[in-house]
Amino acid sequence: MSEIKSSESYRKKAKAAAAKAAAFGEDIDLSTYLTSAEEQPYQSDPEQLPAQAREHMLEAGVVLDDTSQRSGTYIQMDNTPVHSSIRGDGVEVIPISQALKKYDWLSDYWWRAVAVDTDKYTANVELNRGDGYFIRALAGHKTIFPVQACLYLAKARLAQNVHNIVIAEEGSELDIITGCTTASREDPGLHMGVSEFYIKRGARVTFTMIHSWNPAVAVRPRTGIIVEEDGLFLSNYVLMKPIHSLQMYPSARCVGENATVRYNSILVAGKGSSLDVGSRVFLEAKGAKTEIISRAITTGGDIIARGFIDGGAPEVKGHLECRGLILNNGGMIHAIPELKGNLAGIDLSHEAAVGKIAEEEVEYLMARGLTRTEATATIVRGFLRVDIQGLPPTLGAEIDRTVEASEKEVM
Amino acid sequence: MLKIKQLAVAVGDKEILHDINMTIGTGETHVLFGPNGSGKTTLLTALMGFPKYRIVRGSITFQGKDITGLPLDERARLGIGMSFQRPPVVRGVKMSDMVAACLKGRGDAETVAKLAKRTDLEDFLDREINYGFSGGEIKRSEMMQLLAQKPKLALLDEPESGVDLENIVLIGELINELLEKHCPIPDRKCMGLIITHTGHILDYVNARTGYVMCDGRISCQGDPHEILQTIKEGGYGSCVNCLARRHLNV
Ligand SMILES: Nc1ncnc2c1ncn2[C@@H]1O[C@H](COP(=O)(O)OP(=O)(O)O)[C@@H](O)[C@H]1O
Ligand SMILES: [Mg+2]
C-alpha cells in the first residue's frame, strides 16, 4: 500500500498511538494475540468453502449457497481476502489492498472518517496493513440486492486486522450486510475492524451488521461515517450471540444539509459477555436529522449502552431511545444517553428505560391463554422488534430470522 | 354454569370481598352494579385468577370443575376470558400478535382481518397493543381479543365507560355477538358477567339478573332493570343503606 499519499505520516501517527488505550472498554493486551496467520487460498466459487464455515457464515446473514439475491460478495478469512465478486454492474466489491492500487484518489478517503491514532486498535490496523473490503456504489446507481461481506476468524488467538471503505457516490443506493463469525465456538481471538463510510450527496446506504462470535472473542470495531447533503445512512446492528468483550462507538458526521443518520441496535448479553456499545452523531449542517434506537437485554452479562447526539447547526433534530431489559439477576445495564446543543431552535430528545419484564404485561397475555413461558417469549420478541424505517423487506426478514434463531438462547 | 360460593378475596392482607354468592347458568348474562371502589373489578380479576387477588375462603366452580386454585392461564384455556378496564401497554407486541394468540390456531390472517373490520380496528393491527389507544379504542380492542378467544365465560369490566354514543352501539353489538344473543336462548353456551357503573349497557344488551356490590358485598340481586331504576332514583346511597339495614337485622 505504498501508493497512499502521506502514508509515512499515518505510520508515524500509528506508531505513536500503538499503546494508547481506548476511551472506553476493557484495555486489551495485544501482545497476547498472534499477529499473523497462514494465507488462505482464494476461492472463486464461495460454495467451495468448507461446509462448517458456510454454516457459521449463514448464521451471520451471509448466504453462499445461492448468491442470486446478492449484488456482491466479499469474504475475508483471518487477514486474507479469499473471495470477492459482483453480479451485475453499478457496484464494485474488491479487497481494499487491490482498490488502493487501482485508484490513486482512494488515498483521499484513507483514515478520513476514522483517525488513525484514535487508539491502539486503529493504530494496530494501520501498522499491520489490515486488508478489508472496498465497496463502492456508482453515481446514480441503485442496487436492488444487498452486497454481503463476511469477516471470518479462523485461527485461534489471532488478532484480525480489517480496514474497510465504503463509498456511495452521489444519488446511489446500496444495502450492505456484514456478518462476522468464527470457525471455532471456543477459541479466543481479537477482531479489530476499521470501517470508513462516505455517503455522498443524495445517496442512501443501509448497513446491517450481524455479529456471531464466540464467548472468548474480543471485538473492537472502529467506524466513522461522513454523510453529505440529503444523504442517508441507516445502520442496523444485531448481536445476540455470546462474546467475551465488545466495545464500539461508531461516529457519524452529518456534514451536508438535511443529511440523515439512523442507528438501530439489538444487543443481548449472556453471562460472561461484556458490552460497551454506543452510537454517536454530530449534526453539523442545517436540517440534519438522526434517530438512535437501542434495545439491550441481559441474561447475565453487562451492557453499557451509550448514545450521543451533538446538535451543532440550525434546525437539526435528534432523538435517542434506549431501552434495556433485565431477564436474569446478575446482569447489568447502564444506559448513558447524552445530548449536546448550543443553538436555539434545535430539537434533541431522549428516552431511556431499564427494567425487568412487567408482571402486569405477562399476566395480561396469560389471561388470553398463553403460558407464562409463551407470554414472556412474546414480550421479549416484541421488545426486540424494532420497526426499522426504510429497511428493504428482504433485509428486515434477514434480521427477524437472526433474532428468532437466537431467541431460544435468550429464553 | 358458574357457581361462586361464599367467596372472600384479599389483596395483600386486606380482605376486599366478603361472602360472595352467585350462580350464572349456561348461556345467561348477568350484570354487576356498584359504586366506585366497591369491589366489582376485584371480583372479576379473582374469577379470572390473577395471583394478586387471593381467594381466602369459599369456592368457584366452573362447568362442574372446582377452579378455586387453578392458575390464571389455565382458567383462560378452560374458557374464561376477561375484558380489561385499563389493560397495560405491551411495547413491541402488535395487536395482530395478541389476536393471533387469542385465536390459538383457530384462525389465520384472514380471520384476524375480519375481526379487525368487525371492531373497526383495521388500521390498528400493526400498532403496538394499547400504545396510545383512546378509551374507546381500548374497549373495542378488548372486545376483538375476546371475540377471537371465544370464551365460555366472558367477564366484561365496564365495557361502555368512556365510549362515545356512536361507538356504544357497536360495543353493544359486539357483546351480543360474543354472548351468542343471536342464538335461540336454549342454544346459548356463553355466559356473561358485565360490570356496569352507569347501567347504560342495558340499553343494548339484555341481561337476566343484576347484582349490586357495596363495600365488598353483594347487597341485592334481582331484575337488572328494576335495580337500575332503584339506583337512578336513590343513587348508590340507597343500596348502601339497604345493605346496612339488613346487616343490622341479621
Ligand atoms: N391491587 C390492589 N391493591 C390494593 N388495593 C386494591 C387493589 N385492587 C383493588 N383494591 C382495593 O379494593 C377496593 C375495590 O376496588 P375495585 O375492585 O377496583 O372497585 P370497583 O371496580 O368496584 O371500582 C378498593 O378499595 C381498592 O382500592
Ligand atoms: Mg373497576
Reconstruct the topology from this structure.
The complex is a heterodimer of chains A (411) and B (250).
Chain A: H1 7-16, H2 51-59, E1 72-77, E2 80-86, E3 91-95, H3 96-102, H4 120-127, E4 133-137, E5 147-153, E6 159-168, E7 173-182, E8 189-199, E9 204-212, E10 217-227, E11 232-239, E12 245-248, E13 251-254, E14 260-269, E15 274-283, E16 289-298, E17 302-311, E18 317-326, E19 332-341, E20 347-355, H5 359-366, H6 372-384, H7 393-410
Parallel strand pairs in A: 1-5, 4-6, 5-7, 6-8, 7-9, 8-10, 9-11, 10-12, 10-13, 11-14, 12-15, 13-15, 14-16, 15-17, 16-18, 17-19, 18-20
Antiparallel strand pairs in A: 1-2, 3-4
Helix pairs in contact in A: 1-4, 5-6
Chain B: E1 2-11, E2 14-24, E3 29-33, H1 40-48, E4 53-62, E5 65-66, H2 72-78, E6 80-83, H3 95-103, H4 109-118, H5 135-149, E7 153-157, H6 165-178, E8 191-195, E9 209-214, E10 217-222, H7 224-249
Parallel strand pairs in B: 3-8, 3-9, 6-7, 7-8
Antiparallel strand pairs in B: 1-2, 1-4, 4-5, 9-10
Helix pairs in contact in B: 3-5, 5-6
Provide structural commentary.
The complex is a heterodimer of chains A (411) and B (250). Chain A is of the alpha/beta class and 411 residues long. Chain A has helices spanning 7-16, 51-59, 96-102, 120-127, 359-366, 372-384, 393-410, and strands at 72-77, 80-86, 91-95, 133-137, 147-153, 159-168, 173-182, 189-199, 204-212, 217-227, 232-239, 245-248, 251-254, 260-269, 274-283, 289-298, 302-311, 317-326, 332-341, 347-355. The mean pLDDT of chain A is 92. The relative contact order of chain A is 0.10. The N and C termini of chain A lie far apart (48 Å). By secondary structure, chain B is an alpha/beta fold. Chain B has a single domain (2-86, 153-249), classed as Rossmann fold (3-Layer(aba) Sandwich). In chain B, the strands form 2 sheets. Chain B has a 6-stranded mixed beta sheet, sandwiched between helices. In chain B, strands 2-1-4-5 form a 4-stranded antiparallel beta sheet. The longest helix of chain B has 26 residues, at 224-249. Chain B is globular, with a radius of gyration of 18 Å. The two termini of chain B are 30 Å apart. The mean pLDDT of chain B is 92. The chains are: A alpha/beta (411), B alpha/beta (250). Chain A binds chain B through residues 323, 358, 360-361, 363-372, 374-375, 378-379, 381-385, and chain B through 48, 50-51, 72-73, 76-77, 81-82, 84, 87-88, 90-94, 97-98, 101-102, 104, 128, 145, 149. Magnesium ion (MG) binds at residues 40-41, 85 of chain B.
